[in-house]
Design brief:
Blueprint (H helix, E strand, L loop, with lengths): L2 E4 L8 E2 L2 E6 L2 E10 L6 E7 L3 H20 L11 H11 L2 E3 L3
Antiparallel strand pairs: 1-3, 2-6, 3-4, 4-5
Helix pairs in contact: 1-2
Length: 102
């Protein structure tokens, strides 16, 4: 399966590392080594389907920006110890940040 890098646009002066994605027959997969528990099921990949490449890449950027706004700007001390969903999402987003604003 061909592997590509998706480069998220900067958000509020935060820069991000590229995210590896797999594209096969119009389906984009975001492979990951972690088991996600965001929706109550265990999965190790996300799948995005769209009618053309720009639509899918726009959906990726929109979803990334939404997750960043929701979880990426939190401080670790803001997350309650038993809030596993928030901690997991925060960790996943923070892993992609390469430049924080001054």
């Amino acid at each position: 399966m061909p592997r590509f890098l998706f480069q998220p646009d900067p958000i509020d002066d935060y820069g991000f590392n590229p995210i590896p994605i797999d594209i096969h027959m119009g389906i984009i997969k975001i492979p990951t080594e972690e088991i996600l528990d965001d929706f109550g099921i265990n999965t190790t990949e996300s799948v995005i389907v769209g009618t053309d490449r720009y639509e899918v890449l726009n959906r990726l950027q929109t979803a990334f920006a939404r997750e960043f706004e929701r979880y990426g700007k939190l401080k670790k001390s803001d997350i309650r110890p038993m809030d596993y969903k928030t901690k997991q999402a925060w960790t996943r987003i923070r892993r992609h940040i390469k430049k924080e604003p001054n």
